[in-house]
Amino acid sequence: MRASRLAIPGFELVHTVPVGSDLQTPDLRAPGEVWRELFDGARQRIDIEQFYVADHAGSVMDKVLESLTAAGQRGVRIRFLLEEKGLKLSDPQTLERLRAIPNLTLRVLPYAKLT
């Protein structure tokens, strides 16, 4: 896999696309891989925002949540934001799994009301 042409020291661009989408970015690393590296190396704080959350056993998100849980168990403070509309699209079991992570604060923001 070739590296992204966008090179800013200390930053790496990743993004997710809906399952079944034909959007491809072969010059970017897979977000799950990058997130796990970040979460596994976190020492003090993780700030993350997602439009919605959904996983299933063995999925990429399942592995990401394992790394996030391990970070919380190490004492890393985690702030997790969800968009209000995305909350309705989120999997209830995944939300419960998030809420059970030690040191994680989950907040829902109504982005439409903030603009």
TrEMBL record:
<protein>
    <submittedName>
        <fullName>Phospholipase D/transphosphatidylase</fullName>
    </submittedName>
</protein>
